[in-house]
Specification:
single chain; about 120 residues; mainly alpha; Serine Threonine Protein Phosphatase 5, Tetratricopeptide repeat; 5 helices; elongated
Length: about 120
């Protein structure tokens, strides 16, 4: 008869520890992701910064934070790092590149207006 490697108490305990640790890790990530998504959906740039801190490797959250800074506070210089990081994390999403290009377009317009006022 074949012996199962999980027959001993130590093996069973080790297996359960690994399964529980994996479940807790995945659960913690899911909670971080859900909280970050809730923060980013509030349309508040300050909360968007908290969302970025919770999930810094999420391109959608990076892009949304940059978008909020760009359009709600007219802080195009604050928007740039978030928009650039979103395109670095996921360069295949055209919307991220479009938002980054819009930021440069607005920045150029602001420069031209400032130069015309002098």
């Amino acid at each position: 008869m074949l012996k199962s490697p999980l027959r001993s108490t130590v093996s069973i305990a080790a297996f359960l520890v690994i399964v529980i640790a994996t479940a807790l890790t995945l659960g913690a990530y899911a909670v971080r992701y859900a909280v970050a998504r809730e923060l980013i959906d509030t349309n508040n740039p300050e909360r968007a910064v908290w969302a970025v801190r919770l999930d810094p490797q999420n391109a959608l959250i990076q892009n949304r934070a940059g978008f909020l800074y760009q359009w709600q506070t007219a802080g195009t210089s604050k928007a740039l790092p978030y928009l650039q990081h979103a395109t670095e994390l996921n360069p295949r999403v055209a919307a991220y590149w479009n938002d980054l290009a819009s930021r440069f377009h607005l920045g150029l317009g602001q420069l031209l207006l400032a130069a015309g006022r002098k």
